[in-house]
Here is the input.
Amino acid sequence: MEKVRDWKVLPPREAKVVPFPSTIDPRLAAILKTKGIPSLYSHQATTLERIAEGRNVVVVTPTSSGKTLCYNLPVLNDLLSRPDSRSLFLFPTKALSADQVDELHGLVTALEADIKTFTFDGDTPADARRSIRAAGHIVVTNPDMLHSGILPHHTRWTRLFENLRYVVLDELHHYRGVFGSHLANVIRRLKRICRFYGSSPQFICCSATIANPGELASRLLEEPVEVIDQNGAPSGEKHFILYNPPVVNKELGIRRSVLKETRDVTDRFLSRGCPSIVFARSRLTVEVLVTYLRESMRRRHKSQDLIRGYRGGYLPTERRGIEQALRDGRVMGVVSTNALELGIDIGSLEVAVMAGYPGTVASAWQQAGRAGRRQGSSVAILVASSTPLDQYMVDHPDYFFGRSPEGATLNPDNLVILISHVKCAAYELPFEDGEAFGDCHEDFSQILQFLEEHRVLRHVGDRWHWMTDVYPAGDVSLRSASTDNVVIHDTVNDRVIGEVDWGSAPEIVHDDAIYLHESRQYQIEKFDLEGKRALAHPVEVDYYTDAEVKTDIKVLDVFQEEERDGGSRAHGEVAVTTIPTIYKKIRFHTHENVGWGQIHLPEQEIQTTSFWFSYGVDHHQTLGVSLEQMGLGLKALANILRHVVPLFVMGERHDIRSVAMVQSPFTRRSTVYIYDNHPGGVGFSEKIYDGCRTIFRAAADIVTRCPCQDGCPSCVGPSLEVGEQGKITALNLLERALDASGLPTLQPPGSPPKLPASAAEVSPST
Ligand SMILES: [Zn+2]
Here is the structure.
């Protein structure tokens, strides 16, 4: 119990049900009744009403609250009365769409109606594609396929586009950052094609709980969207436990291994016969935990086949088999990556254990939701790792259980992304003079002219025509902001093992780097800049490499700025140049530095957006530290902020970078820059500017509570990097920033747990 930081019991909830409305076809209602659905939950009924009124909706209710029916029902109901009607279902991942199609098939087969449901993705055989285009009533696909396989070939999909009634977007919260900025443009293209064929589809979206589902949906669709978040589904009693492994090395801030703690916790439940799911952060940790749990099974003289792993990289048939075995109860425990967090049907488990915080509160709730029954108790346990985010989570149950603080963000007008899609759109249909592209705020005619100057478009009469024979969608990946990738080639087995985006390549695939792929290690022999490829061979070593990068940042334009007494905040456009200098060899587990080497690569520049915070010129004197000390303190501050920011902007680690400058040439003051690592920016900087008080407060909190002496990887970085005074200087700087923003206190609302004694010692307030 010493390790339990919080234990919440969420009481059981009664269902709120309403009878099927008269608008539902009696055949459909009858089938649902035979499937054990005698009535609708209130949120399902509300969704139907809003859709009937012609509105777009986003349904925001927890896992296993019957979200799928919110779109299957209106779509099938419409098809029963209008057999020509068509619908398009978009899922962010393939595994998820396969599962939802099964469910839809079940309903359609029982209805004995002539409704054809097809999945159209990269695996669809060529001969099946024609019949899908002609006869598929419901086409299930993903955004990537819509972008590169359907929209460019719209002339073959006339039946679909002429009659497109509904577009379903499930797991909407996935469409944020780069992916969201792309999808918003794909939707602009989709609506443009629909207008051409005379249809105007309605959008039905579903999302996990985030702070701004309505805002996210209306920015993606550029139309008003109604939020439906009053859940009417029942649920059993649920225990949610935040669990923090004990500190084993105070200096380095290292806690007992999250994997071993996860094994122990899960073992307790398994030994008592409770079906359990474990979520691990990586493919590698999935395999390690499967091994551990199987060992325990054997020790108890049980079959080791009761434990299975589940992750990307397993064959589809293998995965279907595991899902079925879970539903039948033939498997007692499964260890999975987030692949199983989505709505794949695996029956109801009693226990969900998370080996580390999955990165967003939305994901954590989805993972916790895999253990959960309509009746009876279930348990979800979050086992924290030593990282700053994990430690913040277990120390802030209010953050976790309160109203979601996570806001998804996107920027459809990111010029790099926008121009890619304008090209695709021009290929699909010529632009007419004066035509708009969605709600694009950029000067659109200027973009068209720019493309004409680059001999991509030609202005003839009042139209802009595509004029090259290159097919533009093929070069645009929805998952990356830049259009260039570096291919990693295994020279021993002569095959491509992966890709990295151009921007990250110098750090990841420089000569002699250790590249990890599916828990295998490769050493990079040569990074071929011109050929955009890296040659590698498999190795087995006990270290990984970490590149040091020298970064310079120049402000090009200030969008917003606020000056306060002791500091100022701003965001704007910047040019960032980076050059990798050296790499360190870091030993696994102990994180010792076991060597280093030089990197010889040219510098790179990106233009992007950044947030920055500056301190007065003489602030180091106010703090009573040397200029050098101030520099180290700023570095420590930049480290912790970079870790904390993704918490509030729903970003990934590689989305955000930070730089500290003891005297920035632009502000002429001590400045910390936190910039968006995607060319053109995808909206993070403005979000940081707006939420900077909350972000600084969270950072101060992590540093204060961290039990380390003078800095560790769980807070501001190791003292080797930030100096012995780095931690306290960073804290002082954070306090100053919070004063500057007029914040009276560092403590978040609610009653925080007691500070560990050692943390109180380093807190400047004591
Ligand atoms: Zn620390």
